[in-house]
Amino acid sequence: MVFKKKANHEEIVLSNKTRRVTDEEIDFVLQKLTNETRSSSEITRTQNTVDIQLD
């Protein structure tokens, strides 16, 4: 997991080499790090990574 925070932008990248990242894992990370939800963020999924953009 990588968490980047700038003055007006936050980005979280989740990765799992053996399986897809689940919605529950995304929700957990958003809640613990940002108090945001999936509906208030822009999520891009690839095979083994999830990129979450928060403005």
Q: Can you tell me about this structure?
A:
The protein is of the alpha+beta class and 55 residues long. It has one domain (2-54). It has one helix at residues 23-33; strands spanning 2-5, 10-15, 42-45, 49-54. A hairpin with a 3-residue loop joins strand 3 and strand 4 (49-54). The longest helix has 11 residues, at 23-33. The protein is globular and about 35 Å long.
Short description:
With 55 residues, the protein is an alpha+beta fold.
Supply database-style keywords.
4-stranded antiparallel beta sheet; 1 helix; alpha+beta; 36% strand
Question: What layout of secondary structure does this protein have?
Answer:
Elements: E1 2-5, E2 10-15, H1 23-33, E3 42-45, E4 49-54
Antiparallel strand pairs: 1-2, 2-4, 3-4
InterPro entries: DUF1827, LMG18311-like_sf
Pfam families: DUF1827 (PF08860)
